[in-house]
Amino acid sequence: MIEKERIDETNIIRGIACLSVVLVHITAGPVTTLKVGSIHSIIFTLLNRGSRFTTPTFIFLSGLTLFYSYEERNFKYGKFLRRRFNATLIPYGIWSIIYFLYFYSQGVYTLSLRTFVENILLANMSYHLYFILTITQFYILFGIFLYGYKRFNSHILLSLSLLFNLLFLKYVSMPYSDRFFMTYIFFFSLGCYVAKNLSIIKKLVVKLRYLLLICYISVVIYDSYLFYQYYILNKAVDVFGVLVIWILFGTISIFLLMSIGIGILEGYTKITNVLKTISKSSYYVYLSHPLILNISDKWLLESGIYSITGRAILNAIIVYSVTLGLSIGYTKLKINIKGRTDMLNKKASI
């Protein structure tokens, strides 16, 4: 059996996306509160808009790694779903309880069982948890993607997923569309497509890396301009056009991140090791960082730090330090405990 090509660059991409999602939430406040047109406002807007590739990227990575793992393996739906749900939904449930208790202590939530259950089912306990509900839908649907991409033309399937995604965004308006799988179906499909055509695409993204960088910068500037027009100046914009730009931005960002990941793997061992470590803990960083950000910002305000820019910088230092430190420490502890348990079980069986 021919050994499959490794895709270690996924760890680099996931590590960068993990750091970026924290940056998105740290810069969100300054974007809407700084003086319009100031240099600080422009910088924070560019940082915020330029980092918003995170949801498409995480969904893409799920499609890529799942299809690549199961393309030539025996796929058992029940076993697959149990493993995914245990790894995803148990931490989600625990952190939903943590957020409920925290926001209850802050007077945001009342002690209501109905509110608690609704917020868990709709992933509404905190603003970032929508992603867990979205990715869970793709886990449920993965068997269909696996069957399709193994048996049919990958180019046609990718084109159809893009068409369905665009039609949904243009013609369907529904509550909680931000956590419905059809909003992101192209990116999961793109992950399966790249896994199916990995060698060709890796060569292509490396060859086009400078063009991808130019396209990324151009789209970020244009998207920031549209954001400024709509949210700051309250001018009308073509909503569907903005969504098309978002899909284009997500796609360009994903391919640019692939080229960066390949480049880092080839020549930057220390950066590779750091990003791999962050990648292993990325889910816990994702779950915990809004809580640390909320606590940090509240503490800085109570300490008399009212400068929006200064507070954002201090929040970045605190949130990155605390969330990365705790998440990486917890992951290593968990791995060590599992290793010792496996060793003891092996000795017991012998």
Automatic annotation (TrEMBL):
For this UniProt record, the keywords arranged alphabetically read as follows: Acyltransferase, Cell membrane, Membrane, Transferase, Transmembrane, Transmembrane helix
> What are the TM regions of this chain, as residue ranges?
51-68, 89-109, 129-149, 156-174, 180-198, 210-233, 239-262, 313-333
For this chain, one GO molecular function annotation is: acyltransferase activity
- Organism, per UniProt? Alkaliphilus flagellatus
According to the entry, every stretch annotated as the Acyltransferase domain falls at 11-328
Keyword Nucleotide-binding set for record? no
Q: Cite the Pfam families for this sequence.
A: Acyl_transf_3
Which locations, inside or outside the cell, does it occupy? Cell membrane
Task: Read off the InterPro entries from this record.
Answer: Acyl_transf_3_dom
Topology of the protein relative to the lipid bilayer: Multi-pass membrane protein
Asked whether the keyword Cell membrane is assigned, the reply is yes
UniProt family annotation: Belongs to the acyltransferase 3 family.
Spell out the protein name for this chain.
Acyltransferase
